[in-house]
Write a structure and sequence with these properties.
By secondary structure, the chain is α/β, with parallel strands linked by helices. It has 2 domains: 4-86 and 193-269, 3-Layer(aba) Sandwich (Rossmann fold); 91-190, Hypothetical Protein, Haloacid Dehalogenase-like Hydrolase, Chain: A, domain 2, CATH 3.30.1240.10. The chain has 10 helices and 14 strands. The chain has helices at 14-18, 27-38, 51-61, 91-103, 123-132, 158-171, 195-206, 224-229, 241-244, 258-269; strands at 9-12, 42-45, 66-69, 74-77, 83-86, 107-112, 115-118, 137-138, 151-155, 176-182, 185-190, 213-217, 232-235, 249-250. It has a 6-stranded mixed β-sheet, with helices on one face. Helix 9 (241-244) links the parallel strand 13 and strand 14 (249-250). Helix 2 (27-38) runs parallel beside helix 10 (258-269).
Length: 276
Amino acid sequence: MNRAASIKLIAMDLDDTLLDSRLSLSRRSITTIRKALEAGLSVTFATNRGHLAAKPFIEQLGLSGLMITHGGAQIRDAENGRIIHEVLIEKEIAAEVMRFADRHGVYVHIQRNDDIFYRKACEWSEKYEAYVGYHGTEAPWLNLDPVEASKLMILGEPERIAALLPLARETFRGSLRVTSSKPWFMELNHSAATKGSALKTLAGILGLEPANIAAFGDHPVVDGDMLEYAALGVAMGNAPEELKAIADLIAPTNNDDGVAVVIEEIIVQQGLWPAP
């Protein structure tokens, strides 16, 4: 890892990367990241979650500074959620996505900042609320007055989502980036809102170059351009081969403290571990 010497910022995905399969932080991950912060490194999230859904992990780790949310649609202050930069999906496109979901009989919601708007509560809204740890808002008026969106999501049975993904990508080609990080949902972002573009913007704000950045991820589409931008792009051991092929380093899996293992190596190579 000869690129580790100049690393100043560590950016990491959450689900299936830093978090284990129970959506939890391991004790080793918490200890290692806190040691990295004490040693003077900056640590941030680059997640598809919104700020509120990431907040429990921010607090557990004691993070501050800026973070990337909604898959690159926003850069926000980790502590107070203040929006520094955002790329929004226009109302008209949000309305098209809702019509698409209606035609195919699947649930859809709009995420705007920390709000989740859906037209009627159902098993899918409840499942997603349990997943992120907070409640959305029933908004029957969405058909008449959709809001600009940080991100839209379509939820359904895994086989239904798998069948609709190619069609959604073709339908919204050029306007939205359609991905699926869990079998039971697809995420629709503005085509310009990627983690790689957001990380480049964040680096500019912080006065950093790619050589100063390590990035961790598990999804070839969602995380791929972020790993390519960073000087040290790290694919998790549980990532598909497609992402491993473009990574500079392959870490152990998310269930084997892969992020912590690599961060430990970075701070050892910088002479910062153990802390004096």
